[in-house]
Amino acid sequence: MNKYVAGISLLLVLLAGCSDKQEQKNLQQLPLDLASGKEIALKSCSSCHGMDGRGVKDNIPNLAAQVEAYLLKVVQTYDHGKRSGSSGSSMDITKDLKPAQLRNVLGYYASLPPLKKLEETSSAYSYFDRGEQLSKPCASCHGIDGNPKEAGVPHLAGQHPQYIVKATRAYQDGTRTMPTMHEKLTNLSLADIENIAIYFGMNKAKPHASKVANPYEGKQFTYNCNKCHGSMGSSEDVSIPNLAGQDVEYLNKMIKAYRDKVREHSTMHQLIGEFKDNEIAKIAEYFASEQPMQVSFVPPEPIPTLAQKCDICHNLGGTNPEMLAPKLKGQNRTYLINALSVYRDGDRGNSAMHRMSSILYFDATIEGIATYYSAQVAE
Ligand code: HEC
Ligand code: HEC
Ligand code: HEC
Ligand code: HEC
Fold first, then answer.
1. Which residues contact 262 (CB under 8 A, 6 or more apart)?
2. What pLDDT does residue 55 have?
3. What is the pLDDT of residues 145-176, one digit of tens each?
């Protein structure tokens, strides 16, 4: 076990409520009556978890063949209100059960054979490939690789992915006026946008050649721009766009939009207020003619590599009583996405490990790992 995981595990153990574990042990010591468990399942649980342990609809977890000790432990978290929220409250029903009944019904579900796959789905998930796929509707204007052919359309190739995400979100939530052709953006989820941004941003920028004799004339006006947009228009701050190599007409239009207060940008761009049209044209020429630096963005690690880290705990099958992690293979995809999102956002208690994990920073990572596990054959 590597140091990182060992450290985290220790923390997890320290922070996890001891009472849940004690109650889990108490439950496990009760005698198991599978027939009675089946009856309770039929009466109280099957409307949601099925008799075969398959969640009857999205976002209801499969329970079949799940690690028994995990089920006995996790059910306490509903009772203790540590796991709640919109979907957690459907589990209030377990509070009315006596310990012996809980033990039997959970023992019943754990004893069921692993579920067969209902449909063949792929576990493959690549941010870049998905981004390429999702960016097809953008290509007619922004170019297949994010380098547009037509003037006036911004380059997205070589732009910071984080900025592309921010800009797209700003169109979606209305803080930035959506050009009419951007209506397609409204249907994109955050994970979709992240994938598109990774795809475009990591493609090489191919700026258009400058048409003016001396593009450097505008440099004299850019002294104040440098501290944010970088010394030659390649910004180091991932939330500030690169201007180097950007389309000259687009730059011209945007600088004017700031000056004329058409594009909202609080105080930062006030100094643009003093520039005349011909000066702005020169600034645009200058930035457009600069060769942008390759963005420093490091893409999140490939999903299968990430899954190896999860498996350190999740493949134990209940053999380590201090690390009662559930099986993830074949679990419902939507349920996995929601569970991981609430861990990340801190709304689901009892798992210090998942809350802290910066690896789940991207919605696309959560979507990717859920796709990966849900497509595996349950064991
Ligand atoms: C109304 C629908 C509904 C009923 C009835 C129901 N559940 Fe659930 N159950 C859910 C949902 C939804 C979740 C996921 C909650 C969440 O997001 O935390 C869940 C989660 C669970 C979990 C946690 C699984 C995991 O992988 O972490 C267990 C264990 C469980 N249910 C057992 C039961 C048992 C036993 C019964 C019957 C006594 C039962 N449930 C009845 C909807 C239901
Ligand atoms: C019909 C042409 C068209 C299509 C299709 C289109 N865009 Fe755009 N996009 C533009 C234009 C033009 C602008 C400049 C908008 C302005 O002037 O405010 C722009 C601006 C942007 C910006 C802001 C760039 C910056 O530097 O601030 C982002 C991000 C963006 N588009 C993403 C997308 C994505 C993602 C798609 C596909 C889902 C897409 N666009 C599809 C024409 C298009
Ligand atoms: C204090 C920091 C700061 C300074 C100084 C600054 N900018 Fe910006 N600029 C930003 C940020 C942040 C954005 C992105 C705004 C957004 O998200 O909509 C931006 C956006 C832009 C854009 C739009 C780019 C695009 O892709 O849509 C242009 C053009 C621009 N700035 C030009 C300039 C020029 C020219 C100067 C100097 C005269 C300047 N900026 C000075 C922070 C700054
Ligand atoms: C240090 C051990 C450890 C690591 C590493 C770990 N987990 Fe977990 N995970 C757990 C434990 C323990 C639980 C049960 C938490 C509880 O009791 O509520 C859990 C619960 C979960 C659940 C909830 C499942 C359910 O049925 O409700 C999901 C989803 C999950 N982990 C996904 C992941 C993913 C994805 C990774 C890798 C990015 C990961 N975990 C890495 C220990 C770990």
1. 256
2. 97
3. 999 999 999 999 999 999 999 999 999 998 88
Q: Which residue's C-alpha comes closest to atom 41 of ligand 1? A: 45
Ligand 2: residue of 138, 190, 192, 264 to mutate (most ligand atoms within 8 A of CB) is 138
Ligand 4 neighbourhood includes 24 CB (under 6 angstroms): no
Could you tell me the CA-to-CA distances from 268 to 83, 225, 276 in Å, in that order? 43, 10, 18
Rounded Cα distance between 151 and 43, Å, is 66
Nearest CA to ligand 2 atom 5: 138
Give the nearest ligand 2 atom to 197 CA.
35
Half-sphere exposure of 168 (CA within 13 A, CB side): 27
Q: Give the pLDDT confidence of 359-375 residue by residue, as tens digits.
A: 678 999 999 999 999 99
> Which ligand 1 atom minimizes the distance to the CA of 338?
17
- Alpha carbon nearest to ligand 4 atom 10, residue: 325
Query: Which of the listed residues 32, 40, 46, 48 should we mutate to test ligand 1's pocket, taking the one with most ligand atoms within 8 A of CB?
Result: 48
Closest by CA to 363, choosing from 379, 332, 342, is: 342
Q: Determine how many CB atoms are found less than 10 A away from the CB of residue 47.
A: 11
CA dist., res. 191 & res. 361, Å (int): 11
Token couple for 21? 């574990």
List per-block mean pLDDT (blocks of 10 residues) for the chain, which spans 379 residues: 46 52 88 97 97 96 97 82 64 85 97 95 96 96 96 96 95 85 87 98 92 92 92 92 96 93 76 90 96 88 93 88 92 94 73 64 94 96
Residue type, 15: L
Is there a contact between 333 and 370 (Cβ–Cβ < 8 Å)?
yes
Is 259 close to ligand 3, i.e. is its CB under 6 Å away?
no
